[in-house]
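--- STAGE predict ---
source: upstream dedup step, 1 unique chain passed
mode: sequence only
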Amino acid sequence: MTDGTYRADPEPPATEPAKSRSRWPLIAGVIALGFVVLGAIVWSVGGPDREWCKSAVGKEIDALLASNQPIDSWKDDSKLQARIKARVTWPCRFQSDSDLESITGELIMARLPQSLGRSIDEAFGKTDSTQEPTESPTPEWTTSRDDWKASLKIVGKKCYGYGFGCSVEAKVKLGYNGDSSSIPEDATVEVTYKIKGAKDGPVVGSTNVTNQTEYDVNTEYLETRARSSKLAVVVTSVEVY
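--- STAGE serialize ---
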């Protein structure tokens, strides 16, 4: 105040408190950390399972060795290629083509001594190649799909939480409703089955029954829509060779 006149000092310009400005980096960091944790949880639940893929591919290689076929015989058999691809697609869904080739090469190298040993035995005549040719199946014997039954044995199941369904590994077991001793020993019966209840629709497969009751137990890899989904299998057709 001068000369009896009062003059108010001008107010300083409004500024954002320093404390409020310092909180934004902290909030942004917490949000970023939340996304990282969420991504890690999703990855751990549905991420790549290399061991499951190796198990599926290994079973296909073992099946080829057990059938006395060359380990690379699948290259010239389109039907066999499609069957193998269908069985390993789901377990190996997160593996790239290069990863899958690496896994296959690793498993083949591990089984190479077994394959070479069999080749040496065949070269030196140690296989049972002197068996007399078997006769054709008796024409009078016939069979139909009603004579056979199929069932599923769940050997592996991995669920991904509510609403995401499950990955299921199931073995298909067969049985004959009648007296199996009536089946000609030299007959080969191809039994075709259909699995219902999978997320992507019915799964069709087949296996051969020889020596009346002997057959390869097929393993199917399936995905269900929900944890409570039920799988069922039925025999759809049979053919005698």
